Amino acid sequence: MLDQLERHAGNLAPYTELRLHNNYQTRVTMAGGVLVANEAGTTGGVSARSYQDGAFGFASLPSLSDDDVPAVLGRAADNASLVQRKTGTSKGDLPEAGAGHGSYDYRSPKAAVSAADRVEFVRAVDAYLRGAHPDLLNIDVTLSTLSIEKGLATSTGASTYSFVPRTIMVVQLHYQTDDGPVMIYDVFGGFGEAQEHLEGLEKVKPGLEQLYGELRDKASGVYAEPGYHDVVMGPDLAGILAHEAIGHTCEADLVLAGSVAGDHVGDLVASDKVTLVDFAGRGPDGGGGIAISVDDEGTPCRDVTIIENGVLKGFLHNKETARIMDAEPTGNARAFAFHDEPLVRMRNTAIVPGNDKLEDMISSVERGYYLKRATNGQADLTSEFMFGVGCGYEIVNGKLGRGLRDTTVAGVAFDMLKTITMVSDDMTWSHGGMCGKKQMIPVGMGGPAVRCRISLGGRQ
Amino acid sequence: MTVALDPTAGLEIATGAVERAKAAGAEEAKVLHTYTDLFEVNFDTHDVKLVRSAVRDDVEITVYEGRRKGAAKLTGRSHDAIDEAIAGALVSARAGVADPANVLPTEHQPAGSGDGPVEPDADAMVSTVVRHLEQMRDVYPLIRTDSGVYELLSGWSSYADSNGRQQHVRRTAYVVVVTVAAKDGDQTTSLNYTQVMRSDPVEDITSLDPVKQLFDEAMASLRTGSLPDTFVGPVVLAPMALAQLIQVLAGALGGFSLFRKTSPYLDSLGQSIASPGFNLLHRPSELVAADPIDADGFANTDLDVIRDGVLQSYLIDWANSIRLERPRTAGSADLVVEPGDRALDEIISGIDRGILMGRYSGGMPGNNLDFSGVAKNSFLIEKGKVTEPLSETMVAGNFAAALRSVVGISREVVDYGSTRLPWVAVDGITVSGK
Prior knowledge:
The complex is a heterodimer of chains A (460) and B (434).
Chain A: H1 2-8, E1 15-31, E2 34-52, E3 55-61, H2 69-87, E4 101-105, H3 115-132, E5 138-154, E6 159-177, E7 180-191, H4 201-219, E8 227-233, H5 235-247, H6 252-256, E9 276-279, E10 304-308, E11 311-312, H7 319-325, E12 333-334, E13 343-344, E14 348-351, H8 358-363, E15 367-378, E16 384-396, E17 399-403, E18 407-412, H9 413-416, E19 422-423, E20 428-429, E21 434-437, E22 439-442, E23 444-447, E24 450-457
Parallel strand pairs in A: 4-6, 8-15, 14-23
Antiparallel strand pairs in A: 1-2, 1-5, 2-3, 5-6, 6-7, 8-24, 9-10, 9-14, 10-11, 12-13, 15-16, 16-17, 16-18, 18-24, 19-24, 20-23, 21-22
Helix pairs in contact in A: 3-4
Chain B: H1 10-23, E1 28-43, E2 48-65, E3 68-75, H2 79-94, H3 122-139, E4 143-161, E5 166-184, E6 187-188, E7 192-198, H4 209-220, E8 225-226, E9 230-237, H5 239-252, H6 255-259, E10 280-282, E11 303-307, E12 310-311, H7 318-324, E13 335-337, H8 344-349, E14 353-357, E15 359-362, E16 370-376, E17 378-382, E18 385-391, E19 394-398, H9 399-403, E20 406-415, E21 420-432
Parallel strand pairs in B: 8-18, 9-14
Antiparallel strand pairs in B: 1-2, 1-4, 2-3, 4-5, 5-6, 5-7, 9-21, 10-11, 10-13, 11-12, 14-17, 15-16, 16-19, 17-18, 19-21, 20-21
C-alpha cells in the first residue's frame, strides 16, 4: 500500500489525506444448536479528504485501483470547493501536527486459522455447554474476527501502514424462569488474529463455567432496589465508566457542542484517587484492545491524560477541533470503513489502578451491590451517563449475596466520580468494545474496580 | 477500474455470480448486489463542515452444498474478485453443519421497481443546509448542533438465485439526522436526536415536524429538576421512546427468538398480548426506509402483527419458517403503531402523577422484556399538566406487561420514514428520582 500511495503523493495538495483501506471480517454463529452464520467478507476502497479554509470535502470509491485515485482526489477537492463557494467560509489552515510514519503490522506469526477451524471451535464450545448444562434454554456462540488494514499518505508528509486485528467470541446463555427467559453473556478473546486466541476448548472452559454459574445466580436473583446505593463496580464496569461517563464528554467535538466538560478544565471533577487516560498505544500493561500509532489524519498518536488525580486536564482532539480550540492535535481522528471520514474517537481509555484490593472493597460495603459486567452504555453533554448491568450481586454486611436481574446505573459523572473512595490495584480490559458515533468503531476500555455511590434503576 | 460503474447493472452482476457459483461446484446459490451512491452534507451549530460523496458496490454470495451453507461478502464486481469470494464461500460451506433451513425458496413475487433520482442536486442540498443554519441563528439561538447530516441515499438492490428468482429495485431516500442540545450560560440539556427519511428533497430542515419537535423539547428542557421520590405509575412514551421499545418487541416476535425459544410470546398467536385498541402493523409500503426486498429475494409486503391487542402474526423470515415449520411472514420489521382517537393533551390531562418520556436511555432489555434505564428528555406530569423537565430520573418495568396496561394512544403521530408512531401512555412503571 505504501508503494501505491507514494505514486500519488505528488498530487496531494493543498491539504489532502489519501487512504487505502480494507476491513476483513469473518463470522461463525451457532444458535439454538444450528450453524446460522458462516461467512467471510472484505470491504475496501480508496478515500480522500481535502480541506479548504474551514471546509472539508470527502470522496470514496469501492476500488483500490491506481486508476481510481485521481477521480477520488478530484471529487474530494470539488466537494470542499462546493462548500467554499456556497458559504465563503474562511477559517485558516489546520494546525501543524507532525507527520506520522512507519508500518504497524500486528499479523500473527502463527499459521492462519482455517474456516473449518473456526466452525469446529464454535461447535466445540456449543457442544460442551449443551453436554455439561442440559438445563440451559438456549445457547448462542458467535466467533467473529475483524482486521483493519490502512495505508495513509497526506499532503503534510505522513506516510503510514497498519494492520490491526481483533478476535472475539460472544457466548450468550439463556435460562427459563417462572417469569420468562433470562439471559447472560460474556465476551472472550481480544486483540490479535484468531490463531492467537483459538487455543483449544480447555482454555475457555473455566470462563464458560463461571458464566453458567452467574446465569443461575441471576435467574434466581432479585431486582435492584431503585435509588442511590454504595456500589463496587468491577473492572469491566470501570472501563465503560471511563469510556461513557468521561471519555465522550471530553471528546473535543462534543466540548464544542456544549459539553459541560468545557467549563471545568483545571477543576476538581473527581476524587483524587482518579486518574483517567486515553492511551494511544495498548496501555500501561500492554492489554488494550486496539493499537493505533498514527491516526487517520496522519498525526502521531500520543496519550491524553483526561483526569489526573481528580483534576480535569485535557480533551481528545483532531486537527479541526485543535484549530478551533487553539490546542494540539492528539491523534484521535479515526475512520471505521473506507467510505467513512475520520472523527474524534477514543482509543484505549482507562482509569489507572490504585492501591486497594477488590475483596477489601467488597467487605467495606455494609449494604449495596457488586456490579460485575456491563452491557451497553450512553453518554451525554451534561456528563450524565448510563450503562446497563448484565451481571451483579447484592452486598450484605460485606459479603456477596443474591444475584441481580438486569439493571441500569446512571449518574452525573462529575458528581459520581467524587464519590469514589477506593480503587483496586489490578486492571482489566474489555475485549469487544464497539462505540457508535455516526460510525461504529472498535475501542479499548479498561480499569480497576472502584467503590462509589451511584443510582440504580429497579423495582419497588 | 470503477470510475464509470454502471449503477443499474446489479441484476446482471447477480445472475452472473450465481452462474459462476454453480460452475464452481455449488449445488445452489443466491446473490444480493447493492449499489449505493451517497451524497451527504454535514453541519454543526454554525457551519457546513464537510461534503461527502461515497459510492458502495457490495456483493453478498451464499452457496449451498448438502444443506450446508457458506457466505462471502465483497466490495466490487470484477470476475476475479467474485470468483475468489465464491471459492471462500464454498470452503465455508464444506466446513459447515447441515441444516434443513439451508435451501432456497421457490415461491416468487416480483417487488415494485421503485423510483427517485440517482444524481443529487449538490448545490441545492448545500443551500438547504445553509438556509437551515441561518434560520437556527434567528429562531433557536440556544440550540447547539453536535452533528447534523442531510443526505441523499440512492441506489439499486438486485437479487438472483439458482431457482431463477430475480428482483431489481430502486432505493432512494433523503435523510436528515440531527443531534442537538440547548445551552444557556452554564445550563446544558441532554443530547437528543432524530432521524427523518423522506422520498422528496427536504426544503426546510428547521420546520420538518420531528426536527422542530426536537428543538422545542430541548428549549423546554433547560433548568431541569430532580424527582424527590419513587413511585409506580403512568409513563407517556413519546414516539422516539416508543420506537426504542418497539424494536425490542419486534425481536421478541421474530422467528429467530421463536426458534431459540427465548421469546416470551411462544404459542401466543391469536391471544391478547396488548390492551384493546393497540395495533402494531408491518407496513413497508408506507415507509420510505423500508427495503422493497429481503435477503432471500422476497418482496416486502404488508402484514398485521397485533390488531386490537391480539397477536395476528409473528415476523418469521424464510430460514426460521423452515426450522419452525410455520409460514414465512416477513423478512424485516417495518413497523407502525396506529394512532388512537384522543389528543395527547387529553391523555395527559387524565394523569394525576406520571412522566412524559422523550427518550429511553437504558440497558439492553432482557428476553422477558424487563427494562431499566434513564428517562431522558423527559418531563414530570402533575395533576393533568406537564410541569418541569427532569434529570437523573430512572424508569423500570416490563414491556410485555406495559403493553397490556396501555391507558392512552394519541391521535397525533410522528412519521420518521423508518417508522410512524403515536404517543402511548402505559401504567405500572417504576419511576425513581435522585
